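Revision sheet: structure tokens.
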Amino acid sequence: PEVLTITGLNSGTDSNPNIAAEPDAMAGTKIIVAAQTPGQIGVVVNHDGANDGTLLGEGTRRIVNVTFQIASDAALGSYPVTFSDAVFTGTSISPRGTAMPFTSKENGFMTVLGPAAATVSITGRVLTPESKGLRNAQVTLTDSDGTQRTATTSSLGYYRFEAVAPGRSYSIAASSKRYRFTTRNIEPTTNLAEVDFTAQE
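Predicted:
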């Protein structure tokens, strides 16, 4: 079913979908988008060479964020979000111009909750005592009923929770094998950013 609407296809604010580079993207990253059929978009992540030759290393990276508006007549429920070659062939190009097909694609899903179940997001960063981003740290969000959700930090220490119910009390804690962190208590009513954790010596 067609659930996501497409009314403007330019990168940046006030477009639908809004497609922007995430903090893990290299300096000089350019986003190119195109539509094919309803419910499908193509995203090309290009680079202008402005990062002095620094390349992304191995591992998981969050380099593109795609935000849609939900169609007003969309039925409640969960819908798959999948990667395919329907619009563009999923290929990475090395600095030498060699095509390198992706070895893995992790599909997901989105949930339409309805107007009465508006949600918020919680974002932040996990830092070392020297204020450097800590990768692969675990951030756990626990609600008043004891239900937990966990996010893993990116290579620069960023984490994100989406679809968080507002107006409820939560505890949020970070953990890693090397450092200790202080648990925080929050009660979000709008999107929360910079809910950061700095490791203790």
